[in-house]
Write a structure and sequence with these properties.
This protein has 2 domains: about 100 residues, Arc Repressor Mutant, subunit A, CATH 1.10.10; about 45 residues. Helix content is about 65%, strand content about 5%. The radius of gyration is 18 Å and the shape is globular. The chain is mainly alpha-helical. The chain is built from 7 helices and 2 strands. A two-stranded antiparallel sheet has the order 1-2. Helix 3 packs across helix 4.
C-alpha cells in the first residue's frame, strides 16, 4: 500500500510539474474533477485552506486556463468554480488511457471487486480520520510536533 501511494504521489508530482501547478493547485483540480463544480467556500473546506488562500489558488488556476468561475444555474448570485475543457484535455493527455485500468479490473470477480472496494473505502476513511486527528479541521497540523 505504501509503495503504491508513493508511486501515485510521484506520478501526480510529475503531472503537476507538466501542468505548471503546485501540489495544492493539483489537489484543487482533482477535487473539482471528482466532485464537480463547487463554490469557493466549499472548495476551501475541502482543501483545508482559508477562503483567501483558496481565492489565490483559484486565481492561479484561472490564469492558467484550467478553471473558470461561472454563475450557478440554480442561483445566479452564487459563483461556482469549474474545470475548463483545456484542463480536461491536458489531463487526459497526461494521465493517459484509463482502458488499462478497466482491463485490469475485468480480471476480478464481482466478489473480489466488492472486497477491493470495501478495503479502498476503509483505507480512505481511515486516512481522512487521521487527517482530522492531526489537524485543526482546516488542514493545519496541530500537536506537540508543530512549532
Amino acid at each position: 500500500m505504501r509503495a503504491a501511494q508513493v508511486a501515485v504521489a510521484a506520478r501526480d508530482q510529475a503531472i503537476g510539474e507538466l501542468l505548471g501547478v503546485n501540489a495544492t493547485d493539483h489537489r484543487c483540480l482533482d477535487l473539482l474533477d471528482q466532485r464537480g463544480p463547487m463554490t469557493a467556500s466549499t472548495l476551501a473546506a475541502a482543501l483545508g485552506l482559508t477562503r483567501s488562500a483558496t481565492t489565490t489558488v483559484i486565481d492561479r488556476l484561472q490564469a492558467l486556463g484550467y478553471v473558470r468561475r461561472a454563475s450557478s444555474a440554480q442561483d445566479r448570485r452564487q459563483v461556482l468554480v469549474e474545470l475548463t475543457p483545456l484542463l480536461r484535455r491536458r489531463a487526459g493527455e497526461l494521465y493517459g488511457d484509463q482502458g488499462e485500468v478497466q482491463a485490469a479490473l475485468e480480471r476480478y470477480s464481482d466478489a473480489e471487486l466488492t472486497l477491493l472496494l470495501e478495503f479502498v473505502r476503509w483505507d480512505r476513511d481511515f486516512n481522512e480520520r487521521r487527517v482530522r486527528d492531526l489537524t485543526d479541521g482546516r488542514g493545519r497540523a496541530t500537536g506537540p510536533t508543530t512549532r
